[in-house]
Write a structure and sequence with these properties.
Blueprint lengths: L2 H13 L6 H13 L3 E8 L3 E8 L8 H13 L4 H9 L5 E6 L6 H7 L5 E9 L4 E9 L7 H27 L6 H11 L5 H11 L4 H8 L3 H15 L4 H14 L3
Antiparallel strand pairs: 1-2, 1-5, 3-4, 4-5
Length: 259
């Protein structure tokens, strides 16, 4: 690993605190340290209320794999992640690096959805105690090489800076006036209407953020007819009549802080 490149990435991460590009800069540092292509960061509050803060990275074959899988983890599979769940309950006060192999996961649905489907063999996690607890995960997609002891050591060395940057970023974004992210809106919509599918929530969130049907179809690699179908189903489940109602709901979510 190029140490100059690592330092540049760390400087860029700190400079991005409170900005939209922070998640991309976080992945860039994680990639330099551990050669991962995907990452996700979660906060865990009282009662194990898990919230996805961001997910970054492009899977070589599966569109939106990082965000979709991370949302599924937060809503369905968190309690199946035995290592992290036990650490949360243990009251440990020190940050830890946790290595997780796909073959060690007992829950077959969790293993298939979050690992085998994307050819993920193992994961490195930074467990960061605090209020809330933060968990940062890094993944290698389509790679048979295990994480080496040297890689884990390097991540341990830089973990305090990475997670301090995440904490600072959270404080800054909470204080700043900002629009909700697509992932935040999706989570809020699914909390309001549990029968809303991920794709329906995704299309609704993109529309709330001002994207047109054509833009959504192109970015998500869907047909225009599919986008319209998902939109119609979402309106029905959310009790909305039209886009005006959708935007009114978006304003209400932003004002009330439903994230």
């Amino acid at each position: 690993m190029n140490e100059h490149r690592q330092m540049d990435c760390l400087v860029e991460l700190v400079a991005a605190i409170g900005k939209e590009e922070f998640s991309r800069r976080f992945l860039a540092v994680f990639e330099e340290l551990a050669e991962v292509q995907l990452c996700s960061v979660f906060s865990v509050g009282p009662g194990q209320s898990v919230k996805l803060l961001f997910a970054e990275g492009e899977h070589p074959e599966l569109i939106d794999f990082s965000s979709q899988t991370s949302l599924a983890y937060a809503s369905r599979f968190w309690r199946s992640d035995i290592q992290i769940s036990r650490l949360f309950h243990s009251g440990v006060q020190e940050p830890l690096i946790v290595r997780r192999r796909a073959t060690d996961i007992a829950d077959p649905e969790y293993r298939t959805s979050c690992y085998e489907r994307g050819d993920i063999r193992e994961r490195l996690s930074i467990f960061w105690p605090g209020a809330p607890v933060l968990v940062a995960n890094g993944y290698r997609a389509g790679c048979n090489l295990p994480f080496s002891p040297e890689t884990i050591r390097k991540l341990e060395e830089q973990a305090p800076l990475l997670m301090a940057a995440v904490e600072s970023h959270l404080r800054n974004t909470r204080l700043a006036e900002r629009s909700l992210s697509e992932i935040e809106i999706m989570q809020s919509l699914q909390a309001m209407a549990p029968n809303l599918s991920k794709r329906e929530a995704e299309i609704s969130a993109a529309m709330m953020l001002g994207e047109t049907h054509v833009e959504i179809a192109e970015r998500k690699r869907l047909s225009s007819n599919s986008v319209i179908t998902y939109r119609r189903r979402a309106y029905s489940k959310l009790g909305l009549m039209n886009r005006r109602d959708l935007m009114r709901l978006h304003r209400h979510m932003a004002l009330e802080g439903h994230v």
